[in-house]
Amino acid sequence: MHILTTLVATLLCSSYNVRLAVAQQEEQASTEYTKDDEFKDAVMNVSNTYRKQHNATALAWNGSLAEGAAEWSERCVFEHSGGPTGENLSSGYRNASASIIAWGHERVDYDFKKGGFSKETGHFTQLVWKATTSFGCGRTECNGEGGKEAPGWFVVCNYYPPGNVIGAFTENVQGQVPEEEQPEGPRVSAGWCLWGGGEVGWKGSSEVVWVAVFVSCLGLWVM
Ligand SMILES: *[C@@H]1O[C@H](CO)[C@@H](O)[C@H](O)[C@H]1NC(C)=O
Ligand SMILES: *[C@@H]1O[C@H](CO)[C@@H](O)[C@H](O)[C@H]1NC(C)=O
Ligand SMILES: *[C@@H]1O[C@H](CO)[C@@H](O)[C@H](O)[C@H]1NC(C)=O
Ligand SMILES: *[C@@H]1O[C@H](CO)[C@@H](O)[C@H](O)[C@H]1NC(C)=O
Ligand SMILES: *[C@@H]1O[C@H](CO)[C@@H](O)[C@H](O)[C@H]1NC(C)=O
């Protein structure tokens, strides 16, 4: 009887431990949020992939905008800062890529012919706004509940020059263009080297592209 009890107890215990380990793993935050370089890579990758598809040139990373966005996110209040730059907010997504994809996905509801601002598509139109040239994002793990407290991870991106300018939508928010007509990737910069990978919306993943990326980065190193 004793042996049976011990056995059952041991089994229960080990299965509990396994479940605990699984739960802990699930709860562990994505490294896209916890690591600065991965966060930047992810938001640049996704943002510039959408821009390329909509015939807009890649955004450069703007350090001062990123700093402001990070500071704003630390308040954990889901509201706009009211600053002079464009600003998008998202909260509660599992990783940084998903946060930005949520904005890009709004394109399914956008009327490219008619243009104009709507709350349902405002993130998307800012994301691919042609006249915007730089952006910076920050994030904070808030885990807020209800009201204006941001749930989960709170992501803030600021854009300069700001988009969503009334009266300028049709020229700045372009429809999707075929791959061969999409503009070049971001200009050579440290950010691009980090971001580089050749896969991002480039045609195929040919070695030629890889070589091009490599050489450009090398050029920067030499400089
Ligand atoms: C960039 O994003 C694309 C899809 O949006 C993904 O397939 C690719 O793996 C990403 N690359 C990097 C380096 O994160
Ligand atoms: C894409 O942008 C370029 C440069 O702004 C422009 O010349 C071209 O007409 C645009 N293509 C489409 C399909 O909108
Ligand atoms: C996204 O950013 C643009 C530009 O600042 C803004 O007009 C729009 O209201 C933002 N959308 C939301 C829902 O935050
Ligand atoms: C990010 O989250 C999405 C949605 O939960 C998931 O499909 C995707 O695989 C995740 N990507 C990474 C890089 O963890
Ligand atoms: C970065 O953003 C600020 C606005 O906050 C702007 O004045 C500055 O010109 C931007 N820098 C670049 C490199 O775009």
UniProtKB/TrEMBL annotation:
SMART domains, sorted: SCP
GO cellular component: extracellular region
PROSITE patterns hit by this protein: CRISP_1, CRISP_2
Coiled coil: none
Domain of life: Eukaryota
Entry keyword set: Signal
Key word Chaperone present: no
Ranges of residues in domain SCP: 38-167
Signal peptide as annotated in the record: 1-23
InterPro entries hit by this protein: Allrgn_V5/Tpx1_CS (IPR018244), CAP_dom (IPR014044), CAP_sf (IPR035940), CRISP-related (IPR001283)
Identification of the protein by name: PR-1-like protein
Origin species: Lentithecium fluviatile CBS 122367
